[in-house]
Design brief:
The chain is an alpha/beta fold. The chain has two domains: 113 residues, no CATH class; 235 residues, Rossmann fold. The protein is 34% helix and 25% strand. α7 packs parallel to α11. 35% of the residues are buried.
Amino acid sequence: METLQEYIQACAENGPYQCVLSAPSGKGKYVKTVIRQIGRAYQCENYTSTQVFHENLEADCLAGLLLRLMETAYTQLHAWDGTWEYALRITKKGKILYNKKKSIQAPPVKMTHNRKKRYLIEENTVVPPLVDMGIFTADGRVVRSMYDKFRQINRFLEFLNDELDKLNLARRLRILDFGCGKSYLTFVVYYYMVHVRGLDVEITGLDLKEDVIRHCNETAEKYGYANLHFERGDIQGYCPDGGVDIVISLHACDTATDYALYNAVKWKAKLILSVPCCQHELNGQIRSESFGTLTRYGIVKERMAALMTDAIRANLLISQGYDTRLLEFVDLSHTPKNLLIRAVRTGTSAFAKEKAMAEVENLRAEFGAEPTLYRLLTLSEHEKIPHSS
């Protein structure tokens, strides 16, 4: 082999499952292109310094695309077909360097029980928020000490992605992130929905801290995330214009989670994703003569109160027409915040609603529990609903 076309053909002839083109020649508009095999076709991910653009490619067009990109845009190509790893480089003097060796960097395509975990956002993808968070290096590799956070973020995206196709994706989705804080995950959600799924979404982050909101808006502008913006305010005073499809609430402290859930129900949000935090309210309330052993010991009472709080929240959401699940967010070894409430508005049966509410009433009667979400949902519409702290 002597020509660039022959080397490219050697890289492509066995149907590589991944190709990475890098080291831009200065003639193209992207900094990197990653081509992944999806079924019998390919998907191209073309990266700028802040964005990624996707396009589909037929399998028999792969060699032609690789040749064109190496002639016009890049000077390095790596490809893997499950058996071999191919490396191709064009030097500054135009010399072609080619190498083929047994693949040790990437796993084989066909694996059984030891299949490598596939993440919705894969390593070797340049995601600006993850780079700024210190989870990815500038070239898209996961920082070794941040793998737990990398897995946690992907796990959250899986919870979201599982429900997306049940929504009306033919129109713009409105998403509210309450108590967004520095909004690292908000930026990743926007990146995934817009740049990976190709959806039309508008995300609003809401927080009480003015400096945080200013920083987040500046960051969204830096990334070019046109439909991601942040506002200062309390969820109780927030009036959405045109409704809300998805409400996200991550680590809203104590009863702030209840206000987020209440407003999501009031707005008839189609999907709620909430990771509660600091469930202190019931710990100061619950007592029981029949089950005194559960409330006698401080540490037992504290943990039971936290679990009871979220179980009651889940039942109350069911009573409002939501198919509700309590899910493990990440392994216990990774973080203590390990429970996520996922609620999908499906219109549960009258029997399910009544049963869920009866179970809540039984707990209230036995333990003297008066959770905030219960109070908010059962208040008369003529009564004033107090603001969260």
